[in-house]
Amino acid sequence: MPTDALFHWVVLNQDVLDTVVKAGDRAVIVDRLPATAKQPEPGYVLEVFEQGETLDVVSVPSSWVTLLPEVWGQADGAAIEAS
Prior knowledge:
Elements: E1 8-12, E2 26-33, E3 43-50, E4 53-61, E5 65-71
Antiparallel strand pairs: 1-2, 1-5, 2-3, 3-4
């Protein structure tokens, strides 16, 4: 997953236990999490939306999401080009 993925939309690949977040939900990456001794895979903090409203904010390993080309706040939905 690219390191410039902040504010990209993603789709969850699996349910997040102990939350209302389910596989197939759409979310926006709001922060990146580095790998640690307890969690060797880097991850993301996601704001999960349902019908335009925030459903939950969760932290997941990066492998739990599929990155979409859309970026939050862009009118045309196209990904930001690297300069």
